[in-house]
Amino acid sequence: RYIASAIESALAALDEVAGAQETTVAAVALAWLAAQPTVATPIASARTPGQLAELLPMADLTLSRNELDLLDRVSA
Q1: Residues sharing a CB contact under 8 Å with residue 35, sequence separation 6 or more, in sequence order
Q2: Residue 73 burial (CB < 10 Å; 0-12/13-18/19+)?
Q3: For 5-56, what is each residue's pLDDT tens digit?
Q4: Backbone phi, then psi, for 47, in 5-degree steps?
Q5: Which of 12, 36, 57, 59, by CA, is between 20 and 30 Å from 42?
């Protein structure tokens, strides 16, 4: 149950940030990964144009310090 709760919290935070940034959850997740000092480059895969459209906004996305802190907390 703890794992399910942690996943729900992480998804809620991703939804919150995506809403505030007016972008997709996938783009927020990739932007957060790219901001991690231990990640050289996030890798994502898309098999359909729709999936690619969900990922592409990451290229122009800058997360605020507060957004990064929120995502860091829920992913810990």
Answers
A1: 63, 68
A2: exposed
A3: 888 999 999 999 999 999 999 999 999 999 999 999 889 999 999 999 999 9
A4: -105, -10
A5: 12
Report residue 67 as tokens: 């957004």
For the record, the structure tokens of 9 come out as 């919290």
| Crossing angle for the helix pair 2-21 and 25-34, to the nearest 10 degrees | 100
For tokens 């997740």, the residue is 29
CB-based burial of residue 29 (10 Å sphere; 0-12 exposed, 13-18 middle, 19+ buried)? buried
Residue of 35, 52, 51, 34 lying closest to 43 (CA atoms): 34
